[in-house]
Amino acid sequence: IQTIPEVAKQIYGEESSEKLNVDLFLAGFLDMIEGKSRLIVDGEPITQSLAYYELEHRIKAIVEKREAEEYLPNRLAGEAFLAKKAKEPGVMALEQGVLYKVIKTGANNSKHPTLDNTIKIAYKGSTIDGEVFDESEASEFPLNQLIEGWKIALPKMTVGDKWEIYIPQELAYGKRGSLPSIKPYSVLIFEIELLDILP
Question: Hey, is 43 helix, strand or coil?
Fold first, then answer.
């Protein structure tokens, strides 16, 4: 019985006033132990594995709905930021809503990285409120393992180019975020200089 409040918190969230029905919870728990089932679907009793699947599915739906409501202001702020940024002088658009501004142009030797390449870059990543969550003066990454926004922007750059790139949340970390620095539904800003293209 002592675990029931904790289970309710996992399902409904810390701040929720929703409670589990103790009698039904215990009845279901005892049925599981005894290998019985009082739940019938299409004339067949629900098995333990099906019950677990259904429970996980429902908990996931509840959690996603709660998080979508909790982080709605962050999502709306990101959308407003991109809409405003798109109108600024020098800001250009790529596929799927990715925006960028050229800070420095490189040798323009027409050699662009592909998704099969490893790239060497200097970069700084920040949120729209200016919080820097990651930066490096020289890092190497396989391009095909990076977030979708980078996969769209980096193949347009040549060695020596330095861009500021604005990435919609669904092409970054989306609804999962990367806490604590990146909240769910966060638009991200990256200042990237392409230093080299490796095989």
Answer: coil
- 80: Cα separation from own chain's centroid: 18
Q: What tens digit of pLDDT does each residue of 145-181 get?
A: 999 999 999 999 999 999 999 999 999 999 888 878 8
121 falls in which pLDDT band (50, 70, 90)? Answer: very high
160: left (phi over 0), alpha (psi -120 to 50) or beta: left
**Could you give the CA distance from residue 107 to residue 78 in angstroms, rounded to a whole number?**
33
Write out the two tokens for 48.
Answer: 């333990």
Tokens of 123: 């970069």
Give Cβ neighbours of residue 61 (< 8 Å, ≥ 6 apart): none
| Long-range CB contacts for residues 176-183, cutoff 8 Å, separation at least 24 | 177/71, 178/133, 181/127, 181/131, 181/133, 181/134, 182/127, 182/133, 183/71, 183/74, 183/127
pTM of this prediction exceeds 0.85: no
Q: For residue range 50-75, what is the model confidence (pLDDT) as tens digits?
A: 667 777 877 777 777 777 788 889 99
Answer whether 156's CB lies under 8 Å from 130's CB.
Answer: no
Please report the DSSP string for 107-139 in residue order: ---S----TTSEEEEEEEEEETT--EEEEEEEE
